[in-house]
Amino acid sequence: RSSTVKWTAQNKYSTKVEYKPIRSVLVANRGEIAVRVFRACNELGIKSVAIYSKEDRAHIHRLKADESYLVGEGKPPVAAYLDIPEIISICKNNGIDAVHPGYGFLSERADFAQAVIDAGIRFIGPSPKVVHQMGDKVAAREAAIAAGVPIVPGTDGPITTKEEAKEFCAKHGLPVIFKAAYGGGGRGMRVVREMSEVEENFQRASSEALSAFGNGAMFIEKFIERPRHIEVQLLGDKAGNVVHLYERDCSVQRRHQKVVEMAPAPHLDPKVRNQMTDLAVKLAKHVGYENAGTVEFLCDSKGNFYFIEVNARLQVEHTVTEEITGIDLVQSQIRIAEGMTLPELGISQDKITPQGFAIQCRVTTEDPAKNFQPDTGRIEVFRSGEGMGIRLDGASAFAGAIISPYYDSLLVKVIAHSKDLQSACAKMNRALREFRVRGVKTNVPFLLNVLENQKFINGAVDTYFIEENPQLFN
Ligand code: ADP
Q1: One of 228, 313, 335, 362 is an active-site residue; which one?
Q2: Is the previous residue joined to 21 through a cis bond, with omega within 30 degrees of 0?
Q3: Binding residue per annotation — 221?
Q4: How many helices (H) and strands (E) does the chain have?
Q5: How far is it between the farthest Cα atoms of the chain?
Q6: Which of 229, 294, 461 to mutate to test the pocket of ligand 1 (most atoms within 8 A of CB)?
Q7: For all residues of the chain together, what is the average pLDDT?
Q8: How far is ligand 1, taken at its centre, from the CA of residue 256, in Å?
Q9: Ligand 1 site, residue 461, Cβ cutoff 6 A
Q10: Sign of the CA dihedral 193, 197, 198, 201?
Q11: What CA–CA distance (Å, rounded) separates 334 from 337?
Q12: Which one of 1, 44, 411, 424 has the largest count of C-beta atoms within 10 Å of its C-beta?
């Protein structure tokens, strides 16, 4: 197997970082997550700095920061937030101390992390070397194996021909799942159950990957039947201390994308929980993981679990972990980037005790009646659900906000925290019913159907749940 050698040779990223006090943070992102980071900065007495594309010039994330700068003029709306040289020069020209990448956009780009560091600015995240290693499916799996973490059988590296695909399927048996080797967000994935379908599906998945990610290379894994998606939140520091903040269950997915997330995972065998969290910490220690990160697993009904990937960044669903642990992950990220250790932050494994149960619903401007087609326009009326145990993380959730077609359709994350799954569901259900949004369609009716489903309330769902229950769309 040549993949390790190949990966090592490709690894041009440094591990050296310079720690220094952070007085200003630029968020290389937009919308909800930019505002989330600004709030953390504000509470720490740190200046917050936004970037915005021309399309976002009236967007609230620009106004929520202490300072803001236009990026990517003349570029397409998404490209603006990917403009590394311009973002770096904004940082340099304005004396910015640190950059937070949020999620999506540049958050998993080792070259971005490296460019930030080379400019003498702190990158709020793992070292570029680790970002690179975790973003490379083959290298990440090798690290998992070396740390003793079970993985799903898969191809040794990215493959590009249908012959290689057929060979893997013949050797390992079906079903399998095709994944874009350089992709994410569930796109370019295909499950194959019949030998006769391998060729055509490979070709289709590969061309989908090529148009979505600019690279048609694929990765094949054995498909785990009826899995639950369970992931472990980690924090690591410069001294090599790593703690876990327990797990989240993100099994409620539509087209392999998370819709409702919760913590802790319902009915998880405590033995399995211990093994998973232990192995996640081992993996992080093995690679020298610093800052916040997540190790994702698929679990089958027999209690077996398999590593799928590490997300070397903050995740959309970090909120539910914050609710049950009381630890502000974004503030922790900033302090760790300054060089503070976990003990200095008062964070130690024995002091992390989950309290109660938290659920997050992603309220999007998508129309469930029209196959979740994104809706756009001006929000005419907006009232949200509030009250005890409800948290709202959003940016465009107000009357007068313009929902543009250019970016993802997340409107607001609604988080309910209560003593157990059933009462958190009741709270979420009540809060979502209080929402009044006019002017754009939202997925709230769909979320309410999920929350009223008995299987869901019993905490008995796997990743097939939405697909198997078409009545949720009515
Ligand atoms: P992405 O990086 O695109 O989000 P992931 O590898 O995290 O992709 O997988 C996303 C989802 O796809 C998982 O949560 C799971 O529902 C499904 N999935 C991925 N790999 C497998 C597998 N080997 N067997 C069954 N389901 C899988």
Answers
A1: 313
A2: no
A3: yes
A4: 17, 22
A5: 61
A6: 229
A7: 94
A8: 6
A9: no
A10: negative
A11: 5
A12: 411
Nearest protein Cα to ligand 1, atom 23: 223
pLDDT of 332 reads: 98
Kindly report the protein residue whose alpha carbon is nearest to atom 11 of ligand 1: 256
Main-chain phi, psi angles of 220, to 5 degrees: -115, 135
Q: How far is the CA of 66 from the centre of ligand 1 (A)?
A: 38
- Is-contact 369 472, C-beta < 8 A? no
For residue range 229-286, list pLDDT tens digits in order.
Answer: 999 999 999 999 999 999 999 999 999 899 999 999 999 999 999 999 999 999 999 9
Residue owning the nearest CA to atom 13 of ligand 1:
256
- Which of 103, 107, 182, 189 to mutate to test ligand 1, by most ligand atoms within 8 A of the CB atom? 189
Distance of alpha carbon 28 from alpha carbon 69, whole angstroms = 11
In whole angstroms, give the CA distance from residue 198 to residue 206: 12
Tens-place pLDDT, residues 205-238 = 999 999 988 899 999 999 999 999 999 999 999 9
Query: Is 313 a known active-site residue?
Result: yes
Q: How many whole angstroms from 151 Cα to the centroid of ligand 1?
A: 13
Query: How many residues comprise the chain?
Result: 474
- Does pLDDT of 111 surpass 80? yes
Residue carrying structure tokens 């971005």 = 112
pLDDT digits (tens, 9 = 90+) for 56-110: 999 999 999 999 999 999 999 999 999 999 999 999 999 999 999 999 999 999 9
Q: Residue 68 is which amino acid?
A: S
Is 309 a pocket residue for ligand 1 (Cβ < 6 Å)? yes
Q: Is the peptide bond before 264 cis (omega within 30 degrees of 0)?
A: yes
**Which amino acid, 180?**
A
d(CA 462, CA 453): 13
Hey, what are 425's tokens? 């569901």
Distance CA 191, CA 114 (A): 36
Structure tokens at 423: 């009462």
Ligand 1 centroid vs 333 CA: distance in angstroms?
A: 26
3-state SS class at 282? helix
Confidence band (pLDDT; 50, 70, 90) for 457? very high
Residue 304 C-beta-side C-alpha neighbours within 13 Å: 10
ipTM: 0.95
Which ligand 1 atom is the nearest neighbour of the CA of 185? 3
Distance 42 CA to ligand 1 centre (A): 36
